[in-house]
Specification:
The protein is mainly α. 63% of the residues lie in helices and 0% in strands. α3 runs antiparallel to α4, α3 packs parallel to α6 and α6 packs antiparallel against α7.
């Protein structure tokens, strides 16, 4: 098997960069999510897991860098894709990761976010924190779709 030496060329710049007013609104929403009382490490893990599911190389790459900058360990970052089998994550982080997976894979089941997933997250997070997690998951999915659609390569700068 031969590794690809170049990524496909981007189709265009990220639409949120082309329309700066959109980026301002998205960044304001991101800042609001960060102020919701959820530990930064948990928000980073949620972002990384949703990006892995969506195959957004730009966000996976950037998410790992951001998580490492926030103090996340290599061991935990390597385990995110298999978090259920890992001993690296707390119960509250597991609940957040399960919520991220369900809210990202909306069409995988008749009840996209089952009560069991939501109730477990609600056991660990209050309403403000659940709002922050839900916003982070939604924003991640939005950025994943923008980047995947326009083929933003991992490591690129906008």
């Amino acid at each position: 098997m031969t590794a690809r030496t170049t990524a496909p060329a981007p189709r265009m710049r990220n639409p949120a960069v082309v329309l700066p007013e959109a980026m301002r609104a998205l960044l304001a929403t991101f800042e609001a999510a960060k102020s919701g009382g959820v530990p930064q490490a948990t928000l980073e893990l949620v972002h990384l897991r949703a990006s892995q599911i969506n195959g957004c190389s730009y966000c996976v790459h950037g998410g790992v860098l951001s998580a490492k900058k926030a103090g996340e360990s290599d061991e935990r970052l390597h385990a995110v894709a298999a978090w259920r089998e890992s001993l690296c994550f707390t119960e509250s982080e597991r609940a957040a990761l399960a919520l991220a997976e369900a809210a990202t894979r909306l069409s995988d089941r008749p009840d996209p976010v089952p009560d069991t997933v939501w109730d477990e997250a609600a056991r660990h997070y209050d309403e403000r924190q659940l709002a922050a997690l839900t916003l982070m998951i939604a924003l991640t999915n939005l950025f994943n779709r923008l980047n995947a659609t326009t083929r933003q390569p991992a490591g690129a700068t906008w």
